[in-house]
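For the sake of transparency, this paper describes our internal protein records without simplification. An entry from our holdings is shown next, in its original layout:
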Amino acid sequence: MDNFVNMLNAKVLPVANKMGTQRHMTAIRKGIISTLPLTIVGSFFTIINNIPIESVANALLPYKEILDIPFRYTVGILALYATFGIASSLAESYKLDKLTNGILAVLAFLVSTAAPIHVLKDAKGVIDAGRYINIANLSASSLFASIVTGLLTVEIYRFLKNKNITIKMPDGVPPEVSNSFVALIPAAIILLLFWVIRYIFDFNISSFLSTILMPLKGVLVGNSLFGGLLTILLITGFWTLGIHGAAIMDPIVRPFWEMSIAQNMSEFAGGTSAHHLSTIFTEQFLQWFIWIGGAGGTLALVVLFMFSKSAYLKDLGKLAILPGLFNINEPIVFGAPIVMNPILGIPFIVAPLVTGTLSYVMTITGVVPMMMARLPFTMPGPLGAFISTNWSVPALILSCVNFIIDLAIYYPFFKVFEKQQLAKE
């Protein structure tokens, strides 16, 4: 293990350091980390709203919509906050006005991502006439759009300022007033540019990503190990690039996941043994055997962080452990971060591929049953596996074994990342 860690220090760390100090990569990382308080607070409300205890859930049912509001305005519009953070960070590195660039980036993001819906007539008891924005367009599923608009906006502003295509105020004008007038022409150009791209050319970044993935539809449908591992690879791969992997893949695999678990449940209710149901790679299979602590099996990393010598990693681990136990890993994904981090990105992808293969083998050989129930995603992994496979003890044990495998795979990369953090501290 020590030799492997030394090899990573020699080969991976120099590349990671070079990438980590690159201006735009640094801006992305800082911008996403700035959303950490929101993701932590929002995660706790998600846990409260999805407590897997029937009596508690029933007691909270009248307040479900109210309890959902904090989550929607934190994690639910994460990309909006990230846009401002990314643009502000990049502007700071260029010694440009952070506030102006952050606001212009939010403008570009909203114009290019969140088309307003115009309701002309009141729908009595449902919705009033007016203009509305679907906040789902502002969630982590649009994080890639936030990165693009955040970086591009600052580069446009910098280019125009360097070329003196701005309005200059006389000396003596307060800086906040001067900066506002300097931003007038860049604001107009940025608004027009993203408006033309979105509404004249009808180009949407998130939709574009979904469209180019449609040819994979035929590959991902089925019950094969290749298809299951490909789904895992794409979801984790997109996450490491700062794109909400599950949200990107949802339009392709969601209908088939829904049909698969419904068919399994129907067959089980009809008397079929849980060992002989139709589909292995349901969403629940991924949730309880592979996504232990969230996509990438990050609960293992959270535990390692809790015992880190790095003050930052240790504190982050303590903050992320409770959300992680309930499969909410935004605090660790965006807080470490794993996004755009080649050190932690490798085990984030590799660990689920290993545990996914093992879980498939254990299922296909009849050691563990298939999934026959749908539970709240906040159910802790081993317990979810235990209940969803008709109270199978081997399934519970497999989930625990997968967690140990995650620990082993994450450990050497964690040590490299820890060394990097300790050097900074």
Notes: The chain has a mean pLDDT of 83.
